[in-house]
Amino acid sequence: SDNITLDSLRDSLEKQEDFIVFSLIERARYPLDSPAYGHSSCPGRQSCSFAELFVRTTEEIEAKFGRYQNPEEVPFFSNYLPSSPPGLIPSFKFPQVLYPKAASVNVSRTIWEVYFNDLLPQFTTKGDDGNYQQAVASDLICLQALSKRIHLGRFVAEVKYRSSPQDYNPSIRSKDLKTLTELVTSEQVEAMVVKRVKKKAEVFGQDVTLDSNGNQTTYKVDPLFVSNLYKKWVIPLTKQVEVNYLLRRLG
Ligand SMILES: O=C(O)C(=O)C[C@]1(C(=O)O)C=C[C@@H](O)C=C1
């Protein structure tokens, strides 16, 4: 856990951008497919959407096979997860970096709501092609990628705190959200991230054609949508995770 530095975490955040852009591109292959988000029957509960049922069921299987042994992974429906049968998962000791009382900081609910209500209709076309399983499987990949990125804020906060606890302690004690937010903010880094993800969306998502007549470049996902996603949601939620984590750091 001593090997983790702010630079290594920023490196990880940068690599995760590739996966986030690719997963958005993959989901954008299908239209909105809105029936997948309407209600269907859900065992043991009154009702839930087809998408929610798919995510719950997949998380159950992934939990059994050890996905959440890695503290970087955060499920959307932690209440229903089964434990793994003894001996199934090869043993591995993940470094324990997080402060136990702050590790459970979680914005999964917000990510879920923002993704389905705000984001999805923006980067998919209108329409229904019946590929509901494929669409929600791609949604889950996007959701997991966004959640992992945003919840990495817990590790970023831990590393920042360890490097200068004296800077943070007074604001943690007085629960001063404004100062804590200022302390974790680097506007320069944020501007660079937003610019870089736009470029990645341009490079990874441009439609490739051999036709040299039309020189109008088109993209599978609008690069401006991707940079706005980061500016409006991904970075602010990461900072919210950082601040909420710090608030529990002395508990
Ligand atoms: O790199 C950091 O220091 C972070 O805290 C991560 C992050 C981000 O979400 O990309 C968030 C807050 C900072 O203002 C800069 C960047």
From TrEMBL:
Pfam families reported for this sequence = CM_2
Molecular-function annotations in GO: chorismate mutase activity
One GO cellular component term of this record is: cytoplasm
**Keywords for this protein:** Amino-acid biosynthesis, Aromatic amino acid biosynthesis, Cytoplasm, Isomerase, Signal
Name this polypeptide is given: Chorismate mutase
Q: What class of enzyme is it?
A: isomerase
Q: Which organism is the protein's source?
A: Vanilla planifolia
Pathway entry: Metabolic intermediate biosynthesis; prephenate biosynthesis; prephenate from chorismate: step 1/1
Q: Name one GO biological process term.
A: aromatic amino acid family biosynthetic process
